[in-house]
Task: structure prediction
Amino acid sequence: GAVVSQHPSWVICKSGTSVKIECRSLDFQATTMFWYRQFPKQSLMLMATSNEGSKATYEQGVEKDKFLINHASLTLSTLTVTSAHPEDSSFYICSAASPSGGAGETQYFGPGTRLLVL
Amino acid sequence: QKEVEQNSGPLSVPEGAIASLNCTYSDRGSQSFFWYRQYSGKSPELIMSIYSNGDKEDGRFTAQLNKASQYVSLLIRDSQPSDSATYLCAVSGRSNYQLIWGAGTKLIIKP
Result:
């Protein structure tokens, strides 16, 4: 249980193009999904929190017009990197929150999407 | 500023020994505590969650929580080379089900 898929796993694009990444919770409904970015040998960095049916909440320093997030259903959230540039090359990982037995929810991660912008 | 602190390591442990990973957190209101494992180039995977003071065991893994000391640890018994990874400690925040992440401890199990 608690499986999260992400597509695509790898994408290479030219500078200036837009890239869409999909995150799906396969066997549970996730009211909240999270998008992270991780540069090589660095920690996870939370980019935004996505709630179904409402606007995403972005972390400080993350441009909401550049990283468009749509959480259209309880099982699907998408991240679109608009006008991508080489500095956007990174490992993008989504997670979906599933109710746990404790006081909060447990985050389950997708396999990640590696983006390379040329 | 809510923080989660981990020793970055690397922590080197011989195969078959017990690996002990530690984490401290600053927010006394935190209710949920998680350990994730991340292999190089892969996304994090959940190993253990713990919500109450004391120990929680799952196979070779034991999570320990001490809310009074704001301390959570992960013990790995009979360490295997396949346990070599970065271990991330995560603590619940107070809103939006967010987690506050430690920077991770790199664990190396030497055959």
About this structure: Chain B touches chain A at residues 31-32, 34, 36, 41-46, 49, 51, 88, 90, 92, 96-99, 101, 103-104 (CB under 8 Å). The longest strand of chain B covers residues 85-92.
